[in-house]
Amino acid sequence: GEDHTDYCAICKEGGTLLCCDFCRNAVHMHCMADKFTIKAPEPDEDFMCHKCIQTIMQRRKRAEGRRLKKQEKDEADRITIQKQNPDIKAGMEYEQLASKGQEYSELIELLQDARQ
């Protein structure tokens, strides 16, 4: 395409190039195949160069790291709740804490009514 480089971003040579739909890079299919297991794109499919694939993979890795960190924090929070509330059954933490919250809310309301 007009917006893309006229040489392969991998081997730096010209020829029949595939243009990335996400950046200005253009690459030979055989150069991409040396780096990734990839099939030639169908005419209606977007094509992504090696740089864009690496960017996506790095973003996915960071997102997975954040997901695992959150999962560890949630587990630590669940353990803390269980230790502080030994009468709460595992797996029912939310329902039981919500029920306690409702009880406290009703008690506060009764106390406020009694003051009036």
Give a structural overview.
By secondary structure, the chain is mainly α. Helix content is 56%, strand content 3%. The protein has 3 helices and 2 strands. The protein has helices at 29-35, 50-84, 93-115, and strands spanning 18-19, 26-27. The chain has a two-stranded antiparallel ribbon with strand order 1-2. A hairpin with a 6-residue loop joins strand 1 (18-19) and strand 2. It is rod-shaped.
List keywords for this structure.
116 residues; mainly alpha; two-stranded antiparallel ribbon; rod-shaped
Draw up the topology in text.
Layout lengths: L17 E2 L6 E2 L1 H7 L14 H35 L8 H23 L1
Net shape: rod-shaped
Main sheet makeup: 2 strands, antiparallel
Order of strands, main sheet, comes to 1-2
Mean pLDDT: 87
Strand content: under 5%
Structural class estimated from helices and strands: mainly alpha
**Total strand count, please?**
2
Helix content: 55-70%
- The residue ranges in which pLDDT falls below 50 over 5 or more consecutive positions are none
Structure described in brief:
The protein is mostly helical. It has three helices and two strands.
